[in-house]
Amino acid sequence: MIAALVLAAGQGARMGAPKPLVQWRGRSLLAHVLTYLRDGGVSRAWVVEGAWPLPDTELGGATRVVHRGWAEGPFTSLQAGLAAIAVHDPAAVIVATVDRPHVRASTVVALLQAFARAPQCVWQPAFGGRRGHPVLLPSAAIASVLAASPQASLREVLAAPQLPRDVVLVDDAAVVDNVDTPEQLAALASPEHQR
Which region holds residue 75: left if phi is over 0, alpha if psi is between -120 and 50, else beta? Predict the structure, then answer.
């Protein structure tokens, strides 16, 4: 099984509203993320909830992971989500955030194809010479994240030499984008973000 994990636990202070529930094109940011993951070929998803309760109607069939320690940092949310998924023994987990609702499903397809070629690798999409998100973590990387200190970061864990890491070049600027403020959300209405 390859699962998806959506990190949606943060307070979203810069957005001024619960970011997972902010509306874009008539649906929540969370709904957009779950849609591109499903359309990209991932059938099971988990969502980490923290600062804001998420209505069942927004989960789209995904499994809720309540993380009461969300204020300790995003890495702890990642650990909470991966711990909930790990009991199902996934081959890999694609980790996404609600900051990028406009990622293309084709990017997920490319990550899954890369994993099929080299299932030992951590895979990231890359655009314009920059690594981005979502990130595909194979089982060894999941174990490393769960074994790390809660004060660590994903970047630190993935820098370990025993975790091979590679990129998939994609024609998807959203992988290196962030939607953290109302202004950035408004910018998604520009023609360059239409898909």
Answer: alpha
Which residue's structure tokens are 């909830």? 49
- CA quadruple 80, 83, 84, 88: dihedral, nearest 10: 160
How confident is the model over 9-64, as pLDDT tens digits? 988 888 888 999 999 999 999 999 999 999 999 989 999 999 999 999 999 999 99
Domain spanning 2-190: which superfamily? Spore Coat Polysaccharide Biosynthesis Protein SpsA; Chain A (3.90.550.10)
Asked whether residue 150 carries a pLDDT value surpassing 80, the answer given is: yes
| Separation CA 1–CA 44 (nearest Å) | 8
Q: List the structure tokens of 159.
A: 């820098």
- Residue 184 scores a pLDDT above 80: yes
Which segments of 92-173 does DSSP mark as H helices, in order?
A: 105-117, 139-147, 154-158
Q: Which residues of 96-129 are buried (b: 16+ CB within 10 A; e: fewer)?
A: bbbbbbbbbbbbbbbbbebbeeeeebbbbbbbee
- Asked if the bond preceding 134 is cis, omega within 30° of 0, the reply is yes
Task: State pLDDT tens for residues 159-171.
Answer: 988 899 999 999 9
